[in-house]
Amino acid sequence: MRSPGERIEGRPLRRLVLIAIVGVTTMAIVLFALPLAVVVQRLYHDETVTGLERDATRIAAVVPDDLIQRPRPLKRPAGLPSRLTVGVYRVDGRRVTGQGPGRSALAVRGRDGRVHDGAEHGRLAVAAPVPSDEGVAAIVRVSAPYDPTGDRIQRALLAMAGLALAAVACASLLARYLARRLARPLERLTAAAQRLGAGNFSVRAPRSGVREADEAGIALEATARRLGTILERERAFSADVSHQLRTPLTGLLLGLESALERPGADLSAVIGTALDRGHRLQVIIDELLDLARDTEPARRHLDVPAELEEITLRWHGPLAAQGRRLVLDIHHPLPAVSTSPAALSQIMDVLLGNALQHGRGEVTVQAVDVGGGLAIDVGDQGPGIAEDAPDIFARRSAHPRAPHGTGRDAGRAGTRPAAAGHGIGLALARSLAEAEGGRLILRSSGPTVFTLFLPDTSMAS
Q1: pLDDT of residue 149
Q2: Average pLDDT of span 159-172
């Protein structure tokens, strides 16, 4: 989460989208409007010229042959617009009759027998030849003012400008909508990320319909859940590690105290035993740290028989000290499982420590393929768990002053009795099993049998 005084460089996404869309629209309009304006101007010019050519040709067809020899007023054809001026010229460009300038260069060009147009004396004019047997007898010149043509062009350009402004306005509205549509999910993601940074791991990013933003929201939610799980494990670590270390640490201290109280004790043997127990404590701490941090590299294909043999080997001594046997029964072949050796080690330590502390008689560890996974049973011959016992897997605070030797006390809670008959060992074991994709259940309450189920990874692949 950024500090209050931190300055963020750059422009807001809303403004960038608005500028981009409106800019592109304006550029497209300019690129298309300029050529279109030229075309429209040319179109109106050609349309006016075509009309003048039509009128000039029509008048030239009715000009008398002797008009040059006997000049007289020319009768205007019916329907000819009053804004037009009509004049008859000699081939040398001098006006004979009608309206127009005294001399016309455009009329001189008409002596080649073709129709010519052009601007002359501020007007748009057309010269059409009057044919005769000897060639061109005269030239008819028809002209019109530029203003009407310019007015039409101006109106067309204004209409085009209005359409361009309307298009830019529509583009602006669309840009605002798209900018809001794109920026709002990012703003919500920013707010969700800020809540996550503040410690709220239940953040949810509302779906916006924008795939990339929704994917980022889903990733953020997954990250929040992941961080929440990791943080919860870190918070529970102190309680879990104290529970898991209590028995080996107590054994280590009792061994040292006993050696100090016994005269002539073999100190070398005592120190060696203490070192072995200290190394085991270090292994337990490392395993719990890895599990609390959920380190993925620890998860691999598990050699179940070897792991179980190593685990039971550690518990033969403590059980033998009570005159009890530990039997390992492996039914081959076993399914392939991929899990953390540290998780399996800690789960089995909880179950075997539970059997040592609260159980009676022989302890059995049995591994068998149950179809779809591996089942590991840990049982003993004790009196079992009372039917009215509370949830034995609930995590509760350990009671430091609970009386030792209370049997199951409404539930096997781990290596020491706990408040309301529950400790945190079984809660830890179940959470580790679920983190590995498995389950830990109480299969039988009398005699007590716990079953750890791990899925067959070969079937999943």
Answers
A1: 63
A2: 86
